[in-house]
Specification:
- There is one protein chain.
- The protein contains six helices and four strands; from the N terminus they run ββαααααββα.
- It is mainly α.
- The chain has a domain of about 90 residues: Lysozyme, CATH 1.10.530.40.
- The chain is globular.
């Protein structure tokens, strides 16, 4: 799922965080620029980091499609938000449907409901609830 688009120049995302590449935020400063090679390396590391968060904090078995949806979610909202979320509490209580449905609550940035987040969370929920095959 491609929600971020790729930006080589730093920009402030909807949550006012300096960002580049495909939603990479670590060490990004105003006026910084990255190469396509750096974007790919950052994306791989960012996804691996999100996978590690899901692996660390989820204590119940997941189907691949559920894992993928939650990795996408963590990639977007960050580890801390995931760790403190009702979504994680429901998931670890084996309320899989409830956890998947929680995704659609995360559609606000800086207090504003954003169409892009509504679209992303809806897609993540669909993947989470249904084994997805391209």
């Amino acid at each position: 799922m491609d929600y971020e688009g790729c930006q080589l120049n730093a920009y402030q995302c909807s949550a006012n965080v300096w960002t580049n590449g495909y939603g990479h935020t670590v060490g990004v400063t105003p006026n910084s620029e990255v190469t396509h090679q750096e974007v790919v390396g950052n994306l791989v590391r960012d996804v691996q980091s999100a996978e590690a968060v899901v692996d660390q904090w989820v204590t119940v078995p997941l189907e691949q499609h559920q894992f993928d949806a939650f990795v996408s979610f963590v990639f977007n909202v960050g580890a801390g938000n995931f760790q403190r979320s009702t979504l994680l509490k429901k998931l670890n209580a084996e309320d899989y449907t409830g956890a998947c449905n929680e995704l659609t609550r995360w559609v606000y940035a800086d207090g504003k409901r954003l169409k892009g987040l509504v679209r992303r969370r809806s897609a993540e929920r669909e993947v989470c609830l249904n084994a997805y095959t391209p």
